[in-house]
């Protein structure tokens, strides 16, 4: 379970802009919405779930922000990690807190630690189209876990809109943009660390968000909306 969660693709959970550059339709920007995303191992078997609850939605002109409370559950339904992030939308461009893109094992490991990081967003632009290259994003974090300090660096790059596909899950059907990416994550303890790399794919539905992710290590998919 833990080894699988370490390499399962990023929670991806969140999104960008609608074709009309309107932030209001995004589920992740609607007060009290709950989105459940199932985590799958590399064999395609359910291996846990991530539950997102939206609160504190604030609108100011063309800008919208929201707090996303995240709770991760094991395959047996045990709560193993909680987190708090903020997402924003401006002019139809959704900006997702990079901490939400950490692999599941890191989210579990750091959930009770003192985490310091600048607020870095990864962007999903309005009106993307096949062939577009999306912006890279880099996250640097300092972790103090019961006196043991670590530095975490995550770089997500080579984000390419590969085309459009229809995705169906138990939560619904969406017309999505298929986005490929590469991520390099380095965790250093006492200055020593070894990077690991992920090449993944995510399916982004305009007006909604990330519906599904996949890599050779596993994947995720939205399976319930409340």
Overview of this structure, please?
By secondary structure, the protein is mainly beta. 6% of the residues lie in helices and 62% in strands. Strands 1, 2, 3, 4, 5, 6, 7, 8, 9, 10, 11, 12, 13 and 14 form a 14-stranded antiparallel β-sheet that branches. The chain is globular and about 45 Å long. The chain starts with a helix and ends with a strand. The N terminus is likely disordered.
Q: Regions with pLDDT < 50 over 5+ consecutive residues? A: 1-21
| Percent of sequence in beta strands | over 45%
Give the overall average pLDDT.
83
Q: Oligomer, anyone? A: single chain
Supply the number of helical segments.
2
Q: What structural class results from the helix and strand content?
A: mainly beta
Sheet of most strands:
14 strands, antiparallel
SSE series: HEEEEEHEEEEEEEEE
Q: Termini separation (Å)?
A: 27 Å
* E-strand count: 14
Radius of gyration: 16 Å
Helical content (DSSP H or I, runs of 4+): under 10%
Shape descriptor reads: globular
Features:
mainly beta; 14-stranded antiparallel β-sheet; disordered N terminus; 226 residues
């Amino acid at each position: 379970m833990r080894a699988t969660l370490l390499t399962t693709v990023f929670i991806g959970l969140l999104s960008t802009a609608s074709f009309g550059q309107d932030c209001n339709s995004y589920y992740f920007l609607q007060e009290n919405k709950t989105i459940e995303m199932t985590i799958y191992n590399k064999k395609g078997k359910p291996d846990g779930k991530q539950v997102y609850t939206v609160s504190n939605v604030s609108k100011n002109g063309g800008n919208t922000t929201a707090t996303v409370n995240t709770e991760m559950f094991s395959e047996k339904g045990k709560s193993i990690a909680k987190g708090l992030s903020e997402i924003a939308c401006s002019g139809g461009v959704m900006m997702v807190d990079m901490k939400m893109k950490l692999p599941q094992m890191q989210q579990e490991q750091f959930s009770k630690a003192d985490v310091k990081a600048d607020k870095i967003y990864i962007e999903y632009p309005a009106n993307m189209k096949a062939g577009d290259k999306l912006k890279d994003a880099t996250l640097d974090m300092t972790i103090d876990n019961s006196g043991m300090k670590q530095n975490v660096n995550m770089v997500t790059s080579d984000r390419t809109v590969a085309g459009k596909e229809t995705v169906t899950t138990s939560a619904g059907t969406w017309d999505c943009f298929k986005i490929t990416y590469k991520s390099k994550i380095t965790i250093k303890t006492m200055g020593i660390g070894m990077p690991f790399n992920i090449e993944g794919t995510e399916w982004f539905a305009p007006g909604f968000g990330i519906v599904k992710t996949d890599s050779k290590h596993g994947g995720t998919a939205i399976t319930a909306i409340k």
